[in-house]
Amino acid sequence: MSKEAIKLAIAPIGWTNDDLPQLGGDITFEQCVSEMALAGFTGSEVGNKYPKDTEVLKKALKLRGLQICNAWFSTYLTTQSYEEVEKAFIQHCTFLKTMGATIVGVAEQGNSIQGRQDLPVFDAKPVNTEAEWKLLTEGLNKLGNKAKEMGMQLTYHHHMGTGVQTRGEIDRLMEQTDPDLVGLLYDSGHLVFSGEDPMEVLTKWMSRIRHVHLKDVRADKRQMAISAKWSFLKGVLEGVFTVPGDGCIDFKPILDELIKAGYKGWWVVEAEQDPAKANPLEYAMKARAYIRTTAGI
């Protein structure tokens, strides 16, 4: 049992969305982190409103009993020179290490459509060429080695609207990267939105999972996203995602399997919604209660 080794965090994306700044545009950083703590979480990922000065950020988090566990990093290994990507990656890892984090979550954005509101997320999903797979996997191994040298662990975030979204694409990425250098950021919501079985991916790649995003999916909204040809961000706006316990995913077997396997690290509630429709504090508290009831944590 690894319950003692599991820590609970929540992402600021439920308060303010970095990809859609109009969502929660009026919500301050201070309100966000205060409500995270009030809801019973001890960790946070990083949003655009977070102070860039590490001492200012540390003080604000310490007051609330929070710590940084990860921050998204966009790689452009398929469209930029490796040297450009590495330079930005090292700067990002330096910030995270200063904040006490050991995980760095990355996702390839070189051919991503996740930010394109004019393209349907299913029909226009990019597919990597052989050359792009080579650039991606070799680049990730090199970045993973840089992270390791800095005392960090690179974890890859499969994501809707990218070249690593489906189970087959996740399998290929894992098979073609070094297990010591590239971990998997397991995201229940992106798997179910994509149409995958989250338990199959979990059990196959448990040994590679270094970080977990707990995100639920509203099945009716997912079906609308397919039939109405929504973009990824249109899906977010319409409420495809929600917090664990509020959608169609049965989290009990997922959480039980993580505990049984001896998972150590963070479980992060991450559910991007419109805060005007889904009050962030209310949904954070709902998620915290659900995890306590379902997993005993």
TrEMBL record:
GO terms for molecular function: manganese ion binding; myo-inosose-2 dehydratase activity. The keyword Ribonucleoprotein does not apply. InterPro entries: IolE, IolE/MocC, IolE/XylAMocC-like, Xyl_isomerase-like_sf, Xyl_isomerase-like_TIM-brl. Its EC number is 4.2.1.44. Residues 37-292 form the Xylose isomerase-like TIM barrel domain. Coiled coil: none annotated. Keywords: Cobalt, Lyase, Manganese. This is Inosose dehydratase. It comes from bioreactor metagenome.
